[in-house]
Amino acid sequence: MKSFLVFNNINDLVFWKWDHLFVKHILHLARGQGLIKSTDQISETDAGFSGELNPDIVIQIFSPIITSQRIMSCQFGNSYSSVQCRDDTNIVFDEYVGYLFVHISKNSVCWMQKSLGTLITIVKYFCGPDVSLLKQERQRAGVLMALNSWQRLIFRDQAALVGASESLSTGTESMTATLAALKAAINALPPPTTPTHAAIYVKNKLLSLYSTRGTEDLIPADTMFFGVMSVGAQDKWSRKPPSDSESRSSSPVEDDYEEQPYDGESIGQTLSWTVLIGGTPYGLHLHRLARNITLVLGIGMNGNSAQHVVTALHALSAITPTLTQRDLDALKQAFSPLDVAMKKAIDSLKKCKNQAESPQRKLQSQWDVIKKRLSDFLREGTGSWASLEASISSLAVGLRTAFHLACRGFSPPDLAIQPVALQVHTKLSPLYQFLRVKAMGNFTLGSYPSLTVNCYKTPVMSRYVEEFPGLVHFLHIDRCYHRLTAPALPHCSEMLSASKIWAMVEKSRSNLQEGHLSSMWKDGALHYAHLVWFEDSSGGPLKPRPLSVQALRALPPPNTLPEDYYLKLTEASFPGNSRNIRCLELFAVHIGLLPAGTALTHARRLAATICDINAPHPANLL
Q1: What pLDDT sits at residue 254?
Q2: In DSSP terms, which residues pair with 535 in a beta bridge?
Q3: Cα 66 from Cα 98, distance rounded (Å)
Q4: Residue 294 near residue 200, CB atoms below 8 Å
Q5: Same structural domain, 609 and 469
Q6: Could you report the per-residue pLDDT of 493-545, keeping only the tens digit for each?
Q7: 111 vs 104, 118, 151, 336, 510, CA distance in Å?
Q8: Rounded to an integer, what distance in angstroms lies between the CA atom of residue 237 and that of residue 578?
Q9: Are 40 and 47 in contact (CB under 8 A)?
Q10: Each residue's pLDDT tens digit, 201-224
Q11: How many structural domains compose the chain?
Q12: CATH no. for residue 121?
């Protein structure tokens, strides 16, 4: 039984995704509580199939626990993050800009926190600080597609498992050709010129990325998001459209399906959304070049003011709990960031070309009134908390209006993408079969006498099997850029199955959260090693400051798309001096009897070899 629910500040349900077992369970509870009668809705069997469930019933059933969680959070500042039921069902909570995100499942709490955090990140991309946009069909569909894609990838892809992106290594000629094709595609876009990112993904592996001059760099989470969206789009294009008699309800029910190869009619289709990258609105266009090969275009929408409005909305959401808790000291601390953010937002709105539509004047007058009330309240104690809350609510409405205008109503720009994509298709079509085969594994480690590693510059042959006796699998991640280097999954190995690799990663995550940066353990004939270490800019090792278990548990769960756990770990380990420090991570699996010292030596040499292969640092890719 699984479900994702999002409640607003008045406990209305604005987003939901559930499976048929959740539907069946809720119908059973609703009948038991007298909320519905047997004749009021379809049967449980039909409901489990189509997912038809009145959201009002879910609201009534969950209202007590949602209200309890909000009271504990707002009035006492002591909210609970999870609840375990008698049947081992877990309910996990998280909050973002006043909206409560809920995940219900029988998985572990840690895993559910990671899943819920990923949903929040996806919502940030599609909605920014205005989660009410989930009520719009286009943004809601985008969130569902991205969430479904991530849930499938996390169980079958190593990069998604460890929260990293994997670049497709193809050699100099093909890399040059793809970069040239992307540059020509951007130059072919109709004027005016705006910040643009163009990328090609083979499945969820990044083949090439090109950004126009002056465009803000993408962070690793952005490239991972593009990969998730590419896989989601390819899954959507590969599904055969159901006939009228086979069509199901449009309700977001979680169902697995077998991918049905479609006969090519969907080649050339495009999916478009407005998303926020770094707080700036972009038109995101996904175009299918070929099976499993996607052209991704992120075209800026000249929404520079949106970034400042987003910052102001976040600062405003930080001040709201202080009003509910009647915390005067916290209100004073939150007032200064809000003042700075509002000044920048109003100044940026003054530069809007269409002053008639700009809400700058209204926001300015609203902020002047609120600023005076806040100043008088903090200085002299005049006024009331209720009047402040009303004024803040009015300002929030004005900021959301400005946010929508800056993002052009979240309607992606209507651009002629087809000619641009056709140009890329013409130049790269001879490489498609090669790229699809290459995506099956950048290099393999099996019964071959050597491990073939293809650097993005030149192919490098390294005899890993001879140099590292007993090594059967590894995952190396540069956590500065979240770049993964790993052999393909050993699908044909009975001893080392994919499930054992997944279990290895989960166990290492538990050890890491307990404060163990290095851990080794055995499972039958396999010997596992997990290492996290830090280096300076010249590659010299650095010793981190010891951290308490409480400090480590306060960090977000590792491998979560929304939060950079390793960046926060580096900052906590080297306070005030983490700018030029690299964090690296290595998983190694050996077979047979292996002393701990030998495993550690192998890990050290393997990491050094991979760093040499991947040098210079691939900053141009991420």
Answers
A1: 45
A2: 541, 582
A3: 13
A4: yes
A5: yes
A6: 667 788 889 899 999 988 988 889 999 999 888 899 999 999 988 888 899 99
A7: 11, 11, 12, 37, 11
A8: 44
A9: no
A10: 999 999 999 999 888 888 888 999
A11: 4
A12: 3.30.450
